[in-house]
């Protein structure tokens, strides 16, 4: 059957952000609120996040031209857009299709935004208990999203990949939950499996999870997993690897 998927897809979590740093400080102090004034949409990269992005950008630039991305899709959140821009600095921008796509945004936390674990338990004990009972896959905080909600919007992104970027090499720069939810879709996982991956460790900043088209999978071929949370480009340059959560902090399911 005719190929319908991109030739390759790279999923990259943005570099460390100012929000990641503020959250770590608040959690260490057992505080209730994450001290950051910006909207989650507007939180920029930290200085380390910029260095992480530069290290990963050098790795992409070192690939042979015929293996480099031809399409870059990124979340409109500032930290993701900044990461994407840094990654593209050493690529041939004239050859790239670049799109900001709001469907790639981070999971929305609603009423729990900017609260630490301690803050959620203190200010919203009923929600805290409900989340433990229901689990993060299905729990939707007021004004926010569950993982299922994120997966629903990413299904339409997958359709876009097949319709508009078949045979292209697509770099997607987004967020931790976004990367995990894409894994759920591409690898045809279930709730238990994807949450086990999530419990095993956070997605590192500027890590790469990648897929390549395999015509032997399924009826018409499929995306086959190649790399998971690949951080060798950072390690090779001595750039610290970080895996801080985005906002807010919530206990593992």
From TrEMBL:
InterPro entries xrefs: His_Pase_superF_clade-1, His_PPase_superfam, PG/BPGM_mutase_AS, PGM-Related
SUPFAM superfamilies cross-referenced by the UniProt entry: Phosphoglycerate mutase-like
Protein name: Histidine phosphatase family protein
């Amino acid at each position: 059957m005719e190929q319908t998927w991109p030739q390759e897809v790279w999923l990259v979590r943005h570099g460390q952000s100012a929000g990641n740093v503020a959250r770590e400080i608040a959690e260490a102090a057992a505080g209730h609120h994450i001290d950051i004034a910006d909207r989650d949409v507007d939180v920029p990269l930290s200085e380390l996040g910029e260095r992480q992005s530069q290290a990963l950008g050098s790795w992409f630039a070192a690939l042979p031209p015929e293996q480099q991305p031809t399409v870059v899709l990124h979340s409109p959140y500032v930290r993701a857009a900044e990461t994407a821009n840094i990654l593209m600095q050493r690529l041939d921008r004239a050859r790239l299709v670049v799109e900001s796509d709001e469907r790639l945004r981070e999971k929305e936390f609603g009423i729990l935004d900017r609260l630490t674990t301690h803050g959620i338990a203190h200010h919203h004990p009923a929600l805290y208990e409900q989340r433990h009972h229901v689990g993060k896959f299905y729990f939707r905080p007021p004004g926010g999203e569950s993982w299922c909600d994120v997966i629903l919007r990413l299904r339409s992104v997958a359709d876009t990949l097949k319709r508009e970027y078949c045979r292209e090499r697509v770099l997607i720069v987004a967020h931790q939950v976004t990367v995990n939810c894409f894994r759920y879709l591409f690898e045809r996982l279930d709730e238990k499996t994807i949450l086990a991956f999530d419990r095993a460790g956070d997605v590192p900043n500027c890590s790469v999870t990648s897929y390549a088209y395999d015509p032997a999978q399924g009826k018409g071929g499929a995306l086959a997993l190649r790399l998971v949370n690949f951080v060798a480009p950072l390690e090779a340059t001595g750039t610290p690897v970080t895996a801080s959560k985005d906002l807010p902090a919530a206990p593992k399911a």
